[in-house]
Amino acid sequence: MPSYKAPVEDMMFLLRDVFRSDAVFAEMPAQTDTDCDTIESVLEEAGRFCSEILYPLNMTGDIEGCRLENGKVITPKGFAEAYKVFSEAGWGGLSASPDYGGQGLPRTVQILVDEMLSASNLSFGLFPGLTRGACETIEAHATEDLKNLYLPKMIAGIWTGAMALTESNAGSDLGLLKTSAKPRDDGSFTVTGTKIFISSGDHDMAENVIHLVLARLPDAPAGTKGISLFLCPKFLVSEEGTPGAPNNISVGALEHKMGIHAQPTCVMNYDGCQGWLVGAPHRGLAAMFTMMNAERLFVGVQGLGVADASYQTAVTYARERLQGRTPGATVTSPIIDHPDVRRMLLSMRAFTEAGRALTLFTALEMDREKFHPDPEIRRAATGLVALLTPVIKAALTDFGFEATVLGQQVLGGHGYIREWGQEQVVRDARIAMIYEGTNGIQAQDLVLRKLTLDDGQPVVRLFGLIRKTLDEAEPVPALASVRHAVQNALAHLESVTKRLTSGDLSSAEERNAAAVDYLRLFALTCFGWLWLRMAHAQTEAGISENGNKPAGKLATAQFFADRILPQTASLAVQIGAGSASVMAPDAGQF
Amino acid sequence: MKTILVPVKMVLDANVRPRVRADETGVDLTGMRLSINPFCEIAVEEAVRLKEAGHAEDIVVVSIGPAKAQDTLRQALAMGADRALHIQTDDSPEPLAIAKLLRAVVEQEKPDLVILGKQAVDDDCNQTGQMLASLLDWPQATFASAVSVDGDRLRVTREIDAGLQILSLPLPAVVTTDLRLNEPRHCALPNIMKARKKPLTITSPSDYGVDTTRRLTILSVRPPAGRKAGIRVSSAAELVGDLRQAGVL
């Protein structure tokens, strides 16, 4: 039967042996206590919670789904109880500020726990994930009064958060949104409008829902420069922090979706509800974007988590399922012995481990950005995070979805029926490619903005880090062939990057047409780089290649280098072909 | 009761498939996932519940083993124990040596109750609790499936072959836990963080004058023999005949 076990050994291998996180955190005064032993005990317990409490609710939640009764959303059986246990155990406050009751652990630890939440129950994980996003926005931009009134209860999980951005006519282009906010005499505002696709918009798991709503003030300029951010609670909160009267916020409908059925995605009506301004007038989008990097990292990790859950089930099944004989076998073989099944399993693993490594690399940079005392190091970290955020969001959810399809394929017909949970994972994985900025938008962000950010310094810096790993691996004969493959991939990436930034592909139309393929080329090269680092670290740490976890890095690195990384060559050719054939047919010919 | 002492052991994680060392001297633990023995975890949980119910003030956990055993102690502290004692040794002492060490700890800490797992899942000895009770000349109740405080006595339900047996013991006493005594809690994150800062004292067996030299010699440790191929019989009579010949019928 399907089961999920958090890959704590692999996570700790990355922290201890690949990224040496003890030394990284030792440089940050607020994080000197965050040693690997502490992180491991946190991850062990988080993993236990996810396997034992959240994973068993994943399939039942999918089957039952959320429902709307008399204007109230009812979540599937067991969710409210699990959320209570989750909150009382303090998991919602893991990386939250200690000033408001959080534990103040770094993003690096948060993102690993987010992976476990996503793997065990994506629908559930969105509740604390969105609450955290709302808390970070409030903490960065709201007044002291609002922070003191709302943050402690949100961090404790007693109230949850929702982010209300999208409207029926304003999706990727938020500049088109129409929701209005009119000032009241007491300094608050009256917010009116309808939002769609609001995750955790309403539910029965907590006593209040705090909506962060994008709206326009009466004097707002048109477009994205005229959007402000408002905090609108479902129930108005007294000065003592007790929820009281309803605030004219109602659920218009529950969206019927392909996946994440246990997550209430709502149409929300704000019918003249009372709201409070968060941040400066007309600067709402900027306020929202302060937490966008973190949210996009979180969504990327959702793709990674579901892929790992699918992988674990596929491996279990492939070991048990007896079909056909491999050459030379005298009895029926477990399908894990068949080369094609191994290809699928290794493709999944090669992605999840490299994806996790890229996530951790970026999360450590986010922690440097927030906690490091040296402004130069903080600045460099900001650049790398900005560069890698769209790559992680899009690549981890694209490859993550592809991995869940492979995980379904390994099970054949049993992957298509409900019993093993593989079809649910495929459906659930799909949303992460779409929300929080579609993957197409992410690719545009990478190519149009991030490559040229700070005169291109971040990308130069990243390529430098890849080259450093190549140099360090040079004296190790066992790494020679992986190293060679990564070197080739980097050459393709550098050449295409040059053409996109200053060469024959640098027009807006060429870059737009190349973006998605370029992001994939970028991500594959990063994965190759990190596989080389992991294989090298395993050799240096003296971890046996054939032992228990975290073993087998060299073989998987070799598989990635032999069977996946060559895609960088064809991607370079595709991109090099330019936009001509994309733009040739006119719109009427479609 | 004032103090409860809970001895805990670190073992190969119950979910890991054990592998025998190539030289057949024992199970290979290098790089393997190690965890608190499940019966010991139940003992810690029971002690914490007794404290939460107001029956005890102070829970001391003790582990005898290599440096890594401190992870086990930290977990017990995160569950709610107050203090930890690590008697550090890379030998793996036999139950009698462990019991002698625990007697010394009891003399130091003067607990009203020692509660420990009925056995460890690595060697399945099921001896330490009984030996400790004998050495201390304290009453004992093994294989506990329910524990309650009854005035100044302890009421313990034991799982025995014929059913359940209920004992009433004066304190101080030794209790060993069975699987169904309780279900250990999920640790809260703030408690995991606090556990890092709770007191943990490190000593060694020689501090208690206990000789931990092993008295038994392990000749060899081998994995179970692999399953042999079966044979096909042509009739039920032949099957019965073969089974008779094999002495199983």
Automatic annotation (TrEMBL), chain A:
Top-level taxon of the source organism: Bacteria
Keywords, ordered alphabetically: FAD, Flavoprotein, Oxidoreductase
Keyword Oxidoreductase carried by entry: yes
Domain Acyl-CoA oxidase/dehydrogenase middle: 162-272
Residues in Acetyl-CoA dehydrogenase-like C-terminal domain copies: 463-584
Cofactor list: FAD
Domain Acyl-CoA dehydrogenase/oxidase N-terminal residues, every copy: 80-157
All copies of domain Acyl-CoA dehydrogenase/oxidase C-terminal, residue ranges: 283-445
InterPro entries referenced in this protein's UniProt entry, alphabetically: Acyl-CoA_dh-like_C_dom, Acyl-CoA_Oxase/DH_mid-dom, Acyl-CoA_Oxase/DH_mid-dom_sf, AcylCo_DH-like_C, AcylCo_DH/oxidase_C, AcylCoA_DH/ox_N, AcylCoA_DH/ox_N_sf, AcylCoA_DH/oxidase_NM_dom_sf
Classification via PANTHER family: ACYL-COA DEHYDROGENASE, BROAD-SPECIFICITY LINEAR ACYL-COA DEHYDROGENASE FADE5
Family membership noted in the UniProt record: Belongs to the acyl-CoA dehydrogenase family.
Name listed for the protein in its UniProt record: Acyl-CoA dehydrogenase
From TrEMBL, chain B:
Superkingdom as given in the UniProt entry: Bacteria
CDD domains: ETF_beta
Signal peptide: none
Keywords: Electron transport, Transport
Coiled-coil portions: none
Any Pfam family the entry gives: ETF
Ranges for domain Electron transfer flavoprotein alpha/beta-subunit N-terminal: 24-212
InterPro entries from the UniProt entry: ETF_a/b_N (IPR014730), ETF_b (IPR012255), ETF_beta_N (IPR033948), Rossmann-like_a/b/a_fold (IPR014729)
PANTHER family xrefs: ELECTRON TRANSFER FLAVOPROTEIN BETA-SUBUNIT, ELECTRON TRANSFER FLAVOPROTEIN SUBUNIT BETA
Protein family membership: Belongs to the ETF beta-subunit/FixA family.
Name of the protein this chain belongs to: Electron transfer flavoprotein subunit beta
